[in-house]
Amino acid sequence: MGDRQQIEEFEKTIRILRKKLARSEKDRKQIESDVAAKEALLKTVIHKLKTSKTTLEQRTQDLQDALDTMQLMQVQLVQSAKMSVLGQTTAGIAHEINNPIGFIYSNLDHLDEYIQDLFKLIHLYHHYLPSPPTQFYVDSEDIDIELIEEDIPQILQSMNRGTQRIRDIVLALRNFSRLHEAGYKAVDIHKSIDNILMLLQQKLSGIEVVKNYGELPLLHCSAGDLNQALINILNNAINAIAIKNGQTEGQLSDPSVITITTQYQSNQQVVVNFKDNGTGISPEIIDKVFDPFFTTQEIGQGIGLGLTIARQIIVDQHGGHIDIQSELGRGTEFLIRLSSQC
Ligand SMILES: Nc1ncnc2c1ncn2[C@@H]1O[C@H](COP(=O)(O)OP(=O)(O)OP(=O)(O)O)[C@@H](O)[C@H]1O
Ligand SMILES: [Mg+2]
């Protein structure tokens, strides 16, 4: 091959290579633009995914909120149903007991008077007719008149005490149900607590109740509801003491005590503190005790609404605070703060 021919061959190869280069450059640009388009598409998809994730999170939050509201509404419904049934029942029972016990109570004084007159009469007979016929001794042989005369005042006294106690309980029941004075009113919180203690007296046997009452103003609040909150807290204290006593049965343990302290603070806050030396609450569950349906009691014993209701009444309804401190094995303290202006 001559030089010229070789040059021509080279030039031809160069031309072919140039063409190939131009084509691959075009391909590269096409690929680049394809990649850019795909990248943009991917970005849009990622953005859309992010947006829908946020929407989904928002929806989940909304659903959670709706669930919480529904649970609270359920609690409110159960509470109002419980309260109205309890209120009607206690008011009804109180009314039914009040009348018959009134008859007994008001007749006891007359009975006492008549019995004394009868004895006076017997003594007079004895004095003026000292030697009755022999048959009198035969017929009255089984009657120990001295014993009867000695016993009757004591019998009457215990009947008096018993009826007085029933009257107190009936009064406490009426005050507790407060059906006739529903709604907000000025309440003497010490009277409310004393009423509740009277109602719970049976369950409080064996428990010393120490009252450290301070000077308190009347509280403007819904008396019936506040009673419900306080009774729930006291009931829990009694339960915790009963459980602890069950666990430590036979062992030497501290006497059971519930201490109720009230105080009026300079910031116009009324503080009511219930302290018990029952089981206490373990740190793992203390955050849950106000949750609806949380209970450590056995099935059928408790439904886990007592504290949910108490918090709802004190915090949501009356704008107050309720705090809890507890030490496992030593006891629990509930601190309630209410504004006297609430
Ligand atoms: N004073 C207390 N001492 C120890 N544990 C307590 C006390 N108060 C509440 N608790 C714990 O908190 C839980 C929830 O109390 P809550 O009053 O709401 O429900 P409950 O007493 O179990 O049932 P109920 O609906 O009958 O009141 C109790 O089961 C108990 O474990
Ligand atoms: Mg309870």
Rg computed from alpha carbons, rounded to a whole number of angstroms: 42 Å
CATH homology-level superfamily of one domain? Histidine kinase-like ATPase, C-terminal domain
Total number of helical segments? 6
The distinct ligands, each listed once, are:
adenosine-5'-triphosphate, magnesium ion
- The H-and-E topology, N to C, reads as HHHEHEEHEEHEE
Strand segment count: 7
Average pLDDT over all residues: 89
Strand order of the largest sheet: 2-4-5-7-6
Beta-strand percentage range = 5-15%
The low-pLDDT segments are none
Main β-sheet description: 5 strands, mixed
Distance between the termini: 115 Å
**Proportion in helices:** 55-70%
Q: Which CATH architecture of one domain would you pick?
A: 2-Layer Sandwich
What this model shows, in words?
There is one protein chain. This protein has helices at residues 3-128, 134-139, 145-177, 189-199, 223-247, 306-317; strands spanning 184-187, 208-212, 219-222, 257-265, 269-276, 321-327, 331-339. The longest helix has 126 residues, at 3-128. It is 62% helix and 13% strand. It is built from six helices and seven strands; from the N terminus they run αααβαββαββαββ. The protein has a domain at 183-342: Heat Shock Protein 90 (2-Layer Sandwich), CATH 3.30.565.10. The N and C termini lie far apart (115 Å). The strands form two sheets. A five-stranded mixed sheet has the order 2-4-5-7-6, with helices on one face. It has a two-stranded antiparallel sheet with strand order 1-3.
